[in-house]
Amino acid sequence: MSDPADTQLVPPSSVVLVSGGSRGLGLAIVTDLLDAGVRVAAFARTVTPELEKLTAEHPDQVCVGSVDVTDLRAAQSFVREVEQRLGPIDGIVNNAAIGQDSLHVHTANDDIARIIETNLTAPLQLTRLVVRRMLGKGLRGRIVNITSICAQRGFPGLVAYSATKGGMDAATRSLARELGGRMLVNAVAPGFFASEMSAVLGPTQLEQIVRRTPTGHLTEPVEVVPVVRMLLREHTNINGQVIVVDGAASI
Amino acid sequence: MHSLGCRLRRMNELSRSQIRDLMAQVLKNQDKELPEDDSAQLREIGFRSLDFSELALRVEDETGEELNFDAPGLRRIATVSDVLDFLVELQHQ
Question: Are A102 and B69 inside 8 Å of each other by CB?
Answer without folding.
Answer: yes
